[in-house]
DNA sequence: TTGTATGCGTTATCAA
DNA sequence: TTGATAACGCATACAA
């Protein structure tokens, strides 16, 4: 019977032969060098280099029922917010032995569930999912998964395993408090997509307005359409049509805020004198616009970085001091909410 | 000797047993149903459903030296341009049996080479890479790869295998022709990052200016810094400092163009009367800004979609009519280049 | 610390 | 069209 030919590249046996040891010793030398004597380790490393040996990840995954893949599931590929976190994850994993398996749930919980099921089937080394609003089935899958799981971008008091994010409720509240303090009177909300995190931002915002005696449900305008700059413009135009006395808006995110700014400019409304605008996330453009736009800064890059660091720590056998990392947020007060005759108290 | 326990989920043997056939028949029934009789196929499909069987991809990859992974390498995760293409790739692959393996080369050719090497090692079903400016080594790797390869976002007359994109040179030229036609006299270029594609855009742009008798090398301003809205503002400010008579700019991309717009507004320069601005890619925000911004529209989503379609076709044994697909671009003329007293000829 | 035997779940090979 | 058997390359269990 003729032998099957593999991919042609060197295998662990080739390395073992060249180094004069058994395959398992090579395997150990590569995965946990401390388990192999210095002498052999050196010979093995030499052989690896000479042969330009790269472990076959599929064979490894099959034998160990564990792959070096870290599953990452985000709700959007085009939303800058997740792009920053993703970039951090890739940056942090660039050196290491891990591969990213990226899934796009498109803001659909059922799709996320499907992806989690698929990814878990590959025996990932860890999982990173966005938000805390998984379906019950997803939660259960993840809770029973034999790998670290990090929920990112949000926090709650009931993590599946670990969490890195910030409170969207508090972020929304801070935006509301800011507008109230600046003396704006008829304060509205412009919300696109309205995924769970946007919802909590809105709730926090409402609470701040209520406390400040400025809450008016008619000024809360939301849609499930995905957010965009043009949508921000349309919504503020619509809202102003019903309520011309509107004098400030908190936008769901920065794209919407930029759109709202353009909308005001088109309508000849002065920002911030006649209309205060505040966004969320503080994308780079917020500081560069004219007038510059106030926003709630969140550190998406850091979120991705910390998530990976936690995973690495757990995989190294360490126990992280905290399972929940609240990275907070920071109000970036800029021209769009700087009224000259501010009535700050 | 005790048996090793796997992940616990059903295997192909379980299905085979339940259907009363051999494992290889199950394998065939799943991969190429036409090779199995209707009778058995039905029994097998029943068993698969009953057991909720999902093939173990690692085992499959190991045995066949071919995985269901499609490797995708982009130079940036945060650049909207690639995000759109990525989204299309994911959308188009959502149903199918394929997984995306995403790599971020961060605009570094050597990193791309490393990623290609790694991905190819996993025996991907196909590869998608951005641009046509791979290193020689990368090209060789890809040319020898036993899978379809698609270069996206750009085109040349020398594809590794297949291509979907458009001519950046022509795109840049179209921008130049437009500004010349609009009667602008002292026309500049603002370029960030200056990756190979940006470079070709600039070259096309220069050519148009030369033909129009408007080329002035002193007005070409480039930097290797990554593009951003604020950078667009800084560059135009700088350029105007040296050359206050500047009356139009072509920006490398839309972020830069938006920044240039803000920069002008800050400086009290009227757009488009005193300064014409044109961007590249036509992101959604370009139409929503005030004034709206002229740009060269490219269909990034379609690029991703077509790339995947080509791959699927080839994998299905079809031969695509064309190896190079030029999706072109389209000038979106908006307010930022609409001078009232336009001297269009 | 090192090695032997064997299994991980699938597919390629060859035979019927 | 279907099946028996041997790979695929590595890691686990156990022994030395």
UniProtKB/TrEMBL annotation, chains A, B:
Organism encoding this protein: Thalassospira tepidiphila MCCC 1A03514
InterPro entries: HTH_LacI (IPR000843), LacI/GalR-like_sensor (IPR046335), Lambda_DNA-bd_dom_sf (IPR010982), Peripla_BP_I (IPR028082)
Record keywords, A-Z: DNA-binding, Transcription, Transcription regulation
Protein name: Transcriptional regulator
Annotated ranges, domain HTH lacI-type: 10-64
SUPFAM superfamilies on file: lambda repressor-like DNA-binding domains, Periplasmic binding protein-like I
Any GO molecular function: DNA-binding transcription factor activity
Entries under PROSITE patterns matching the protein: HTH_LACI_1, HTH_LACI_2
């Amino acid at each position: 019977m003729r032998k099957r030919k593999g991919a042609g590249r060197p295998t662990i046996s080739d390395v073992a032969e060249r180094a004069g040891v058994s395959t398992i010793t090579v395997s150990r030398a590569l995965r946990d060098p401390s388990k192999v004597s210095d002498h052999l380790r050196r010979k093995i490393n030499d052989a690896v280099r000479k042969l330009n040996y790269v472990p076959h990840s599929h064979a490894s995954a099959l034998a160990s029922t564990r792959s070096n893949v870290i599953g990452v599931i985000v709700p959007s590929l085009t939303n800058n917010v997740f792009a920053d976190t993703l970039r951090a994850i890739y940056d942090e994993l660039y050196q290491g032995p891990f591969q990213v398996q990226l899934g796009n749930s498109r803001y659909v919980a059922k799709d996320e569930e499907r992806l989690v099921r698929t990814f878990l089937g590959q025996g990932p080394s860890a999982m990173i999912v966005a938000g805390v609003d998984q379906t019950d089935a997803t939660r259960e899958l993840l809770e029973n998964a034999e790998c670290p799981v990090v929920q990112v971008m949000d926090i709650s008091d009931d993590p599946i395993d670990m969490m890195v994010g910030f409170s969207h409720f508090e972020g929304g509240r801070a935006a509301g408090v800011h507008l109230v303090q600046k003396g704006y009177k008829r304060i509205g909300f412009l919300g696109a997509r309205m995924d769970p995190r946007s919802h909590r931002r809105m709730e926090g915002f409402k609470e701040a307005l209520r406390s400040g005696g400025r809450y008016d449900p008619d000024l809360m305008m939301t849609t499930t359409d995905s957010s965009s700059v043009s949508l921000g413009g349309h919504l503020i135009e619509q809202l102003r049509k019903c309520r011309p006395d509107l004098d400030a808006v908190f936008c769901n995110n920065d794209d919407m805020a930029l759109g709202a700014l353009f909308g005001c400019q088109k309508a000849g409304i002065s920002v911030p004198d006649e209309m205060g605008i505040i966004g969320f996330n503080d994308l780079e453009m917020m500081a560069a616009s004219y007038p510059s736009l106030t926003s709630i800064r969140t550190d998406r890059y850091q979120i991705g970085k910390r998530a990976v660091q936690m995973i690495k720590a757990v995989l190294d056998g360490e126990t992280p001091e905290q399972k929940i990392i609240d990275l907070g947020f920071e109000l970036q007060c800029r021209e769009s909410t700087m009224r000259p005759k501010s009535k700050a108290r």
